[in-house]
Amino acid sequence: MSENIKNDKEKNIVVKEKEESNPVKKREVIKTLLIIFLALLLALTFFSNTIMNRSLSEITTETASSGKLTERVRGSGMVVSNQTYEVTVDTVNVVEKINIKSGQKVKKDDVLFRITAESSTELTDAEAALDTLELEYRKALLSEPVDYSTENQAIKNAREDLNLAIAKRDQVYNNQANVEQAKEQYLSDKREMAELTSLQGKLSGAVTAIDSDEYSAAAPEYTGNLIALHSAYTAAEAEYSTAYSLYTEAVGDGADEGVVNTAKADADAKQIVRDNAKNAYAAEKATVRTDLVAQLAEVERELADVSDRVTEYESNSENNGMTYEDCVADVQAKERALADLMIALQKAQKTDSVTGQISKLDIEAQKKAIEKQKEKVAKLKEKTTATEIKSKYDGVVSAVNVQPDDATTPGSPLAVIDIAEEGYTLEVTVDADKVKKIKTGVKAELMNNWGGQAECVLQKIKNDTTAGSRSKILEFSVTGEVESGSFLELSIPCGSASYDAIVPKSAIYTDKDGSFVLKVRSKSSPFGNRYFAERVNVEVLASDETSSAINGGISRGDSIITAASKPVSAGDQVRMKDK
User: Fold this and answer.
1) How far apart are alpha carbons 518 and 537 in whole angstroms?
2) Interior CA angle at 571 toward 565 and 573, to 5°?
3) How many helices (H) and strands (E) does the chain have?
4) Distance CA 147, CA 318 (A)
């Protein structure tokens, strides 16, 4: 068996050697190998361009155009209301209900909030305090007026006694006087008594007029300038009452603080004028009255003397047997008694005058305290029931600062309302160089007010006052559907012009050598056109939101690279994106 296998191997080797030594067979093999090689070479050559293209960056291009371009500047700013209204209350309450929210439009007299009082204990205490004040005031008014009738009667009686004693003394001394002389004295005394009686009536009438402040029946020679001072005081009192009424009205109406302060200052000034006029009148009144009372007392004394002499003459009474020395001693005793009574009366009058003035001031203070307490009670009563806080103006709610069940703080705003009819303002800060072509009155395009109807018109161009700033501030008036505090992005037109080369803004690049674009340059080859990126330095003349006008080696119709699948540099071969 093994020998047969050996023989078969030897036969195969012999056959193989014969085949390899056959020249025809060798040529067939070489020809086949050559065909395979050429086929592979042709396939590689054919697919090399496709393989290379797949490795190149795929680009998107836009064709440079010419025409008109409107240059624009972009900026943003916050909308600010030209006038706002703060909703406040003057008392501490609890917010029961809120009927508004930020951004909501409201009309005048719309109910914004409903508030209630925290507690009624404060009202109860205030009413009790008011009752106490009124009781004390009524007690003060019940005080008895000052009465000097007893003292005056005692002085009058003492003066009469003195006059009688003097008459008796003189009668004793002049008992032997000439009868004719006594008659002449009697007639003179009668005339003097008539004059003194008339003078007494005038003086008494003047004192009565001063006490009643009614001078129509008083003799003007005894009232001095009291009539003029009284008129000045009456006029000052009327002016002060009017000014104080205006002040209380301003406080009650919730006027602005400036109006209230002005009204209060005017009332205080007129009160000073009133007090000065009142004091001047009172001082002059006291002086004149004191002088008139003294004159009246003197006249009454003289009248009593004359009357006694007349009575003595007419009655021709006897001296009751008193000696002249007894009469002199009696006169001296009665003079001392009269002097003591008059001194006591003057002292009592001074003391009572001061006490009366103090009492009057206390009563006035009590009356003012009652008025203030009444105002406090009235305000607290308003708090005991639910109160609706209404809007004073049409507008838009820009802020709500409280939540339900919050306690209010006097003077602190519950909400802020933008008064819509006053409009809004928006300021945009831009470089000074960009403002040169912008003119007031231009309308800006809103970039982010989606769905809203609003319009922005440039009103002013101002300098930026920030230290070191070279910017300008553009002030726009804003109307339409906007809210205070919102930010708007604006596109501001700077003017239009025609340009020879306009390309997309995305096609412009910048490096240390300046601005440039990548233009597509084509080159023919046996396998078709090949495309290369070529750098072209340019100058940007103007821009809008999407395009820029340039000056450089770019002409209308040139293909400019706007995007690439991977970074492209100048000189790189690229492939065009299939369209």
Assistant:
1) 9
2) 50
3) 9, 20
4) 38
Tokens of 241: 């009452």
């004693």: which residue's tokens? 165
d(CA 237, CA 334): 49
Pairing, β 57-63 against β 573-576: parallel
Q: 536, exposed or middle or buried, with CB in 10 Å at 0-12, 13-18, 19+? A: middle
Whole-angstrom distance, CA of residue 558 vs CA of residue 489: 34
Helix (H) or strand (E) holding 390: strand 387-390
Q: Cβ contacts of residue 548 below 8 Å, gap of 6+?
A: 69, 502, 503, 504, 505, 508, 540, 541, 542
Read off the pLDDT of residues 500-547 as tens digits, 9 standing for 90 and up.
Answer: 888 998 889 999 889 999 888 888 766 567 888 889 999 888 887 788
125 three-state secondary structure: helix
DSSP state of 515: E
Identity at 238, one-letter amino acid code: A
Cα torsion 94, 100, 103, 105 to 10°: value is -130
Which residue, 499, 507, 498, is CA-closest to 62? 507
The length of the chain is 579
Print the SS3 string covering 136-173. HHHHHHCCCCCCCHHHHHHHHHHHHHHHHHHHHHHHHH
Contact 426, 456 (CB under 8 A): yes
Residue 327 tokens, joined: 């009469």
- pTM strictly above 0.90: no
pLDDT in tens, 371-412: 998 888 887 776 666 678 888 888 888 889 888 888 888 888
Residue 408: DSSP 8-state:
P
61 Cβ neighbours under 8 A, 6+ residues apart: 520, 559, 560, 561, 562, 576, 577
Q: Bridge-partner residues for 396, per DSSP?
A: 105, 418
Backbone angles phi and psi of 65, in degrees to 5: -125, 175
Give the chain's end-to-end CA distance (angstroms, integer): 76
Contact 529, 482 (CB under 8 A): no
Burial class (CB in 10 A: 0-12, 13-18, 19+), 438: buried
Confidence at residue 516, expressed as pLDDT on a 0 to 100 scale:
93
Q: Which residues of 249-276 are buried (b: 16+ CB within 10 A; e: fewer)?
A: ebeeeeeeeeeeeebbebbeebbebbee
Q: Is residue 131 classed exposed, middle or buried when 0-12, 13-18 and 19+ CB atoms within 10 A define those classes?
A: exposed
Alpha helices in 316-413 (DSSP H): 324-383
The single-letter code of the amino acid at 539 is: E
Contact 37, 559 (CB under 8 A): no
SS3 category, 110: coil
Report d(CA 21, CA 142) in Å as an integer.
163
Question: What tokens does 139 get?
Answer: 């007690």
- Dmax (CA) for the chain in angstroms is 223
The DSSP secondary structure of 27-41, one letter per residue, reads HHHHHHHHHHHHHHH
- Taking each helix axis from N to C end, the angle separating 149-173 and 257-315, rounded to the nearest 10 degrees, works out to 30
